UniProtKB/TrEMBL annotation:
Family under the similarity heading: Belongs to the binding-protein-dependent transport system permease family.
Official protein name in the record: Carbohydrate ABC transporter permease
Taxonomic classification: Bacteria, Bacillati, Bacillota, Bacilli, Bacillales
Transmembrane portions of the chain: 12-34, 75-97, 109-128, 140-160, 181-206, 259-278
Residue ranges of every copy of the ABC transmembrane type-1 domain listed in the record: 73-278
Keyword check for Membrane: yes
GO cellular component annotations of the record: plasma membrane
InterPro entries noted in UniProt: MetI-like, MetI-like_sf
Membrane topology qualifier: Multi-pass membrane protein
Pfam families in alphabetical order: BPD_transp_1
Alphabetical GO biological process terms: transmembrane transport
Subcellular location: Cell membrane
Main location: membrane
CDD domains named among the record's database cross-references: TM_PBP2
Length: 293
């Protein structure tokens, strides 16, 4: 089709408008990165910097040498690694069991799982449950209550149902038990789904915040997102956690703004690095269990 003058003008306007919107959403991220690398002496004289004359790693060296921040980083890494592994084991195992026709209690268990999607007991009953289980002020309070999701179980169940039953039958002919079939046959076949869900779980555990605020009172058990939130508030209000206050008192007299921006970059960097390499698994994960024509 031959484009008219009106259509070309309309397309040009759309491109310019979308470019402006994209730039406006990108600028805040670029500003955070630029300020984090700005030399402290320059930022003290030029608070608003779009392109610094002198770059520096002083803010990163400071926060990465601070015990409070490093400890929160290790807690978040533990949640992302151990929590993801446990969630994958529970979700894939439960989904596989529900996908088997010979599982007699499949209907009852599935209805119980669906019930959790429709009804939530609320924050206070959940807190009382965690307290009765003795999980307050433990990292397991951030893992066990969210080990799996009803939606993820249903999606992975649909994925396992698409795997031919002949694979399971041939494995059992070779002498595999049900556990052996699951670990030696089903898990290797479902690596794409496992990779997709591992990303979902890892991002959720890495960004753990609200449950940590509810269940964690000890400074040494706070994940990075909580420490980052306290750091941002305390740098603005001058009141808050004494442990975080030490991060804002530097012998090098670093500007608090550069410290905040550096902490934001470090907290976001792992997901930013991992996502481009595993982005295709997000697309596959969204198609897990979809109906094929």
């Amino acid at each position: 089709m031959k484009s008219t003058l009106g259509s070309r003008v309309f397309d040009t306007f759309n491109y310019l408008f979308l470019a402006f919107v994209s730039l406006s959403t990108l600028l805040p991220f670029l500003y955070v990165i630029i300020v984090s690398f700005t030399d402290p002496t320059e930022y003290a004289t030029r608070p608003f910097v779009l392109f610094p004359y002198k770059w520096s790693l002083a803010s990163y060296q400071f926060i990465l040498s601070t015990p409070t921040f490093l400890n929160s980083l290790s807690i978040s890494a533990f949640l992302a690694i151990i929590g993801t592994a446990c969630s994958l084991l529970i979700t894939s195992g439960l989904s596989y069991a529900l996908s088997r026709k010979k599982f007699r209690l499949k209907r009852q268990v599935l209805m119980a799982i669906l019930f959790t999607m429709l009804f939530n007991p609320g924050m206070i009953p959940n807190y009382l449950l965690i307290k009765q289980m003795g999980l307050i002020n433990t990292v397991w309070a951030l893992i066990l209550p969210v080990l799996t999701s009803a939606w993820y179980v249903i999606l992975m169940k649909s994925f396992y149902q698409e795997i031919p039953d002949e694979l399971e039958e041939s494995a059992k002919i070779d002498g595999c038990t049900d556990i052996g079939v699951f670990f030696r046959v089903m898990l290797p076949v479902s690596l794409s789904a496992i990779a997709a869900f591992s990303l979902f779980f890892a991002v959720a555990y890495w960004n753990t915040y609200f449950s940590a605020v509810l269940y964690i009172n000890k400074d040494v058990l706070r994940p990075m997102q909580v420490v980052l939130q306290v750091l941002l508030i305390q740098a603005s209000t001058q009141v808050g956690d004494p442990a975080v206050a030490q991060m804002l008192q530097s012998d090098q007299m670093l500007p608090k703004e550069t410290i905040k921006m550096s902490a934001v970059v470090v907290a976001s960097l792992p997901i930013i690095i991992v996502y481009p390499f595993l982005q295709r698994y997000f697309v596959k994960g969204m198609m897990v269990g979809s109906v094929k024509g």
